[in-house]
């Protein structure tokens, strides 16, 4: 019995030591197991942009129905040829996805505001005279502004990366909401340079609506870091026509419609990749 105890005791001690060592090794494996990072989503990116509108065109026309002070009714439709738009800066933001090394797309929103000024001759030819005569003219002028929100879906073709630069071309379609502020118009009539009657001042109610739009772009991105790119390019935006102003006149009304916006901008922004 003594011999059996002498044999079992060392064996039990060895088994206990082996079990303890195995437990410690397993604990080390658990502690040293690497953490697997959770991906936000390879290919997604955010963008923010500033744009300078260096050239914009706006065609406009008007329609009038009114009575002069003699009770004669007139109707006139014509085009403006002297609407002016000031340069301005717009702001944009969006998110997109890089599908391949050469193709990506994004959804963007832009806000812009433009100041308008016009000097026209749309008050009619016989506002204060019963019959138009040589040297008779009626002029009017006004200042206002238009605000717009763009919602666009865009696609781009990246043309390869060279020394950190990636040139691209692209285009987009979407909708733009244009809203004109109310405008105060000052009118003045004269015959041979002498004021005829009194000056005419009237207000026009600004109109707003959603319009179809498309854009064309070209530019290049530069890798600032692995995730951050500087994006600089040219953008052309074409916005459909719509209502501008409306008011009631004696015996009729007055309306203005624009022929659409044609905006040329230089755009600079940042793109941040979420991976």
From TrEMBL:
Residue intervals of the Outer membrane protein beta-barrel domain: 15-272
Ranges in coiled-coil conformation: none
Keyword Manganese: no
Organism domain of life: Bacteria
Signal peptide boundaries: 1-26
Record's keyword terms, sorted: Signal
InterPro entries: Beta-barrel_OMP, OMP/PagP_B-barrel
Protein name (record): Porin family protein
The species this protein was found in: Plantimonas leprariae
């Amino acid at each position: 019995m003594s011999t059996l105890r002498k044999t079992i005791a060392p064996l039990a001690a060895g088994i206990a030591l082996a079990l303890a060592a195995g437990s410690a090794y397993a604990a080390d494996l658990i502690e040293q197991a690497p953490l697997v990072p959770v991906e936000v989503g390879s290919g997604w990116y955010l963008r923010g942009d500033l744009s300078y509108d260096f050239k914009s065109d706006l065609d406009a026309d008007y329609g009038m129905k009114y009575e002069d002070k003699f009770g004669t009714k007139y109707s006139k439709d014509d085009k403006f040829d002297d609407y002016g738009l000031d340069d301005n800066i717009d702001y944009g933001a969006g998110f997109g996805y890089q599908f391949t090394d050469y193709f990506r797309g994004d959804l963007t929103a832009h806000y812009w505001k433009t100041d308008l000024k016009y000097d026209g001759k749309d008050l009619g030819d016989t506002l204060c005279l019963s019959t138009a005569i040589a040297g008779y003219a009626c002029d009017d002028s006004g200042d206002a502004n238009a605000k717009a929100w763009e919602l666009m879906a865009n696609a781009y073709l990246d043309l390869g990366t060279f020394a950190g630069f990636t040139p691209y071309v692209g285009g987009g379609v979407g909708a733009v909401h244009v809203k004109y502020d109310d405008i105060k118009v000052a009118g003045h009539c004269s015959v041979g340079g002498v004021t005829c009657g009194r000056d005419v001042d009237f207000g026009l109610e600004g109109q707003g609506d959603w319009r179809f739009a498309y854009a064309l772009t070209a530019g290049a991105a530069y890798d600032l870091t692995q995730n951050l790119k500087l994006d600089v390019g040219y953008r052309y935006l074409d916005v459909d026509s719509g209502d501008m102003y409306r008011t009631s006149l004696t015996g009729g009304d007055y309306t203005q419609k624009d022929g659409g916006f044609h905006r040329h901008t230089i755009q600079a922004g940042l793109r941040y990749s979420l991976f």
